[in-house]
Amino acid sequence: MLINENLNSLGFKGVKNIYKNLSVSELVERAVLNGEGKLTSSGALNVNTGKYTGRSPEDRFIVDQRSIHNDINWGKVNVPIAQENFDLIYKKLIEYFQGKDLYIFDGFAGADKRYSMKVRFINELACQNLFVHQLFIRPTEEELINFSPEFTLICAPGFKADPVVDKTNSEAFVIINFEKKMVIIGGTMYSGEMKKSIFSVLNYILPQKGVLPMHCSANIGIEGDTALFFGLSGTGKTTLSADPNRRLIGDDEHGWSDDGIFNFEGGCYAKCINLSKDNEPQIWNAIKFGTMLENVVADKNGEVDYSDDRFTENTRAAYPVDYIPGAVLEGTGSIPKTILFLTADAFGVLPPISKLTKEQAMYHFMSGYTSKLAGTERGIKEPQATFSACFGAPFMPMNPSFYAKMLGDKIESADVDVYLVNTGWAGGPYGVGKRMKLSYTRAMVTAAINGELKNVEYVEHPIFKLMMPVSCQGVPSEILNPINTWENKDEYRKYALELAKKFKENFSKFTDVPENIQEIAASIE
Ligand SMILES: Nc1ncnc2c1ncn2[C@@H]1O[C@H](COP(=O)(O)OP(=O)(O)O)[C@@H](O)[C@H]1O
Ligand SMILES: C=C(OP(=O)(O)O)C(=O)O
Ligand SMILES: [Mn+2]
C-alpha cells in the first residue's frame, strides 16, 4: 500500500506536508528550520525536550483486549486502558495533525530477518524522526519499495491528553495497542519512550517465536565470543559495551534465538552526563553530525558542557551503531560465552565483581536488584533501591518468571559464565561512598570476558554467599572485598544485612520457584 493510502486508512486528513523517509541531512535541516533544536560545535543536533526529560512509567498503558488479556501481567507496570478510551484519544490525536507537517520513517526492529518487525514511525517533529532513523534499523532502497508496516508508532509531543475525559494519568501517554498493532504517544517529547515502547511490543511477540528478549547490551571479541551486559537504566550497559578491544553489537535490547543473539536496534542512546573524552572516548567521538542530543547544555557558540545538569541528569545522545568504530553492522552474534549482570548498588555493599553459579544467576536475574538513578524516570531525584525482575521489568508485558525460566533454559544449554558486577557505590552508601571507578569496572569486565577470572582464588561473601575473586589485573586487590573499602566495618555489616533483608522480602513474592533456587534465597542472611 502506498504511504498516502496508508495515511488515509489511518484516518489522517488535511495534513500539510508529508516528509517520507528523509535523509539524515534533510531531517537535521528541517529540525533546525522548524526551531526544534540547534547544532552544537561538533555538528550534533541538540534539542530541549521540555517538561518530560525521562521515561514516564505511570503514563504507559496497554489496551486491555480479549486476545491478550490473559497473557499480560497487569499492574503498576502494565496499566490497562479500555479500547474506547484508546479510540477517543486516537481520534483527537489524528485530528491534531490537520494542517501540520508530518515525518515518516520506515524501518525494522530486529536485526535477524527471521524475527524482524517492519515499523512505520509517524512523527510530529523532524528531530524525533531523526531519532528513530538513527535508533532503529535503516532499510535499503529496495526494502523501502512496497514497505508494508507490521506495526505503526505515532508520536505527537504537542498533543496533550485530558486525564479526566481520556482516563489517562496526565497529559502524557504512551499506549500500546496489540490488536491494532499500534503505539501512540503524546504529551511527552522524551524520545526514549519511542524505543522502549517498541521494545515492550517485541518482548510480548518474540517469546511466541522461541526468542528470549533481553534488556542488555552486547559485544563480541575477535574470536567470535559474545558477551551480554544486563542492567537497568544507568548501570553501564552502553558505557561498558563500548570497548575499543571488542566489536559493539548493540547497547540496549537483544534477542536470543536458538542460533545466537541479535540486536533489536540499529543505534545507541547514551547518557551524556559528565561524559569525558578520557573515560568514554568512543561515545565522545560518536557525538557529531547526525547525532541527536537531548537536554545537553550548550552556549551560544554551540560549545557543550556535559557536566551541566540544569535540565536533567538524564542528558542523552542518539547515534547509529556505525558511529562506534568496528561495530557489527549486521547486528548479530554467537551464543553468549559471558554474561554480566550490572547492578548500581547505592548501599555500597555488593562486591565489585562476583562469579555466580547457574542457580545464583537465576536468583539474581529474578531479583534484578539495582538502584534507580536520578533522572531516567520521572520523580527519581536520588538513587533508590529497586528490584526489577529480568533487569528490565518496566518493559516486560508478561510475568517476569516467564522470561526468567526462558533464560534459565538458555543458560543451562549454553557454556556460559555469569558474573554480577556492582557498578554503583563503594566505601559507603550513596552520599558517603563513591561510585566505583570506571577504569576498575572496565578491568574487571575485561578479566571476566577473557576468562582470567576462571582460575583465580575466590572467597565467599559471608552474607550474600557471592564468590569474590581475591585478585584481578588492573584492580587493587583490597577493593575486591567491599568491607575493606568501608572505614567502619560494623556499619558495613549493618547495611549489608539491611540489603539482604530487602532481597529476602522481594524474593518471597515469587511462587513456584524450583528448589535449587529457593536454596540460594535461603542461604542469604
Ligand atoms: N563503574 C562504572 N561503571 C559503569 N558506568 C559508570 C561507572 N561509574 C560511572 N559510570 C557512569 O554511569 C553511567 C552509566 O550509564 P549507561 O552506560 O548509559 O547505562 P545504561 O546503558 O545501562 O542505561 C554513565 O554515565 C557512566 O559514565
Ligand atoms: C532509554 C532508557 O534506557 P537506558 O537508560 O537503559 O538506556 C530508559 O530507561 O528510558
Ligand atoms: Mn543505555
Descriptive account of the structure:
The protein has 525 residues and is of the alpha/beta class. The protein folds into 3 domains: 3-34 and 55-210, Phosphoenolpyruvate Carboxykinase, domain 1 (3-Layer(aba) Sandwich); 268-322, Phosphoenolpyruvate Carboxykinase, domain 2; 338-523, Phosphoenolpyruvate Carboxykinase, domain 3. 27% of the residues lie in helices and 23% in strands. It has 15 helices and 31 strands. The strands form 8 sheets. Strands 1-6-7-8-10-9-4-5 form an 8-stranded mixed β-sheet. Strands 14-12-13-23-27-24 form a 6-stranded mixed β-sheet. Strands 2-3-18-21-17 form a 5-stranded mixed β-sheet. The relative contact order is 0.12. The model has no long low-confidence stretch (mean pLDDT 96). Manganese (II) ion is lined by residues 237-238, 251-252, 269.
- Shape, please? globular
What fraction, in percent, of the residue positions are helical? 25-40%
Instruction: Output the CATH homologous superfamily of the largest domain.
Output: Phosphoenolpyruvate Carboxykinase, domain 1
What is the CATH first-level class name of the largest domain?
Alpha Beta
Number of domains: 3
Record field, number of beta strands: 31
Distance between the termini: 61 Å
